[in-house]
Write a structure and sequence with these properties.
Helices cover about 55% and strands about 5% of the residues. It has a two-stranded antiparallel ribbon. Strand 1 and strand 2 form a beta hairpin. It is globular and about 40 Å long.
Length: about 180
């Protein structure tokens, strides 16, 4: 656990005080600490609504939430360090590839009907904020993205935007050296 603690500050006692689940992200803002990606994004949307991350149209908004939930609840948690530790070192790559591919099969179908330039139409949304790090995870675990042309196209469009370039997981200060851009 010592090596894991050193490489992953989320397991430190200091971080546990911010987020008892010992999961990233956690955001200290406006005198509060918020954990969980979607809760953070929705708080920012409500308190700093520019740029808008949830469409005004209720049908588009529900698709954004559906896609975001699919990624944040149905795909991403299956690659959390706590889960990977449970499947064992020798099974991690196969496990991650299988779970990501299963989720991407569903996501590809959905994005074929909701996608435009981005996940839902032609405006960047909360769903896009979830997509880019999940594609980065897929690449990290060497998932073949060939069967997912819509996911790949949208991810490429998003990575052309400066905001996604500078915030990409491979450019974060806590990214392990072997995963840095």
């Amino acid at each position: 656990m010592g090596a894991t603690r050193a490489l992953c500050p989320q397991f430190s006692e200091e971080f546990q005080a911010l987020n008892p689940m010992k999961q990233v992200p956690a955001l200290k803002i406006d005198g509060i600490t918020i954990s969980q990606s979607l809760a953070i994004i929705e708080y920012l949307e409500e308190t700093r609504p520019t740029p808008r991350l949830l469409p005004q149209d209720p049908k588009k908004r529900v698709f954004v939430r559906m896609i975001s939930d699919l990624i944040a609840s149905g795909i991403q948690p299956l690659q959390n360090l706590s889960v990977l530790k449970q499947v064992g070192q020798e099974n991690q790559l196969t496990w991650a590839q299988k779970t990501i591919s299963s989720g991407f099969n569903a996501l590809e179908q959905i994005l074929q009907s909701t996608g435009g330039k981005y996940c839902v139409g032609d405006e960047v949304s909360m769903a896009d904020l979830c997509l880019v790090p999940q594609v980065a995870n897929a690449e990290r675990f060497k998932v073949d993205l060939t069967p997912y042309p819509t996911i790949s196209r949208i991810n490429k469009s998003l990575l052309a935007l400066e905001a996604f370039q500078v915030s990409h997981p491979c450019r974060q200060p806590d990214t392990p050296p072997e995963l840095r851009a």
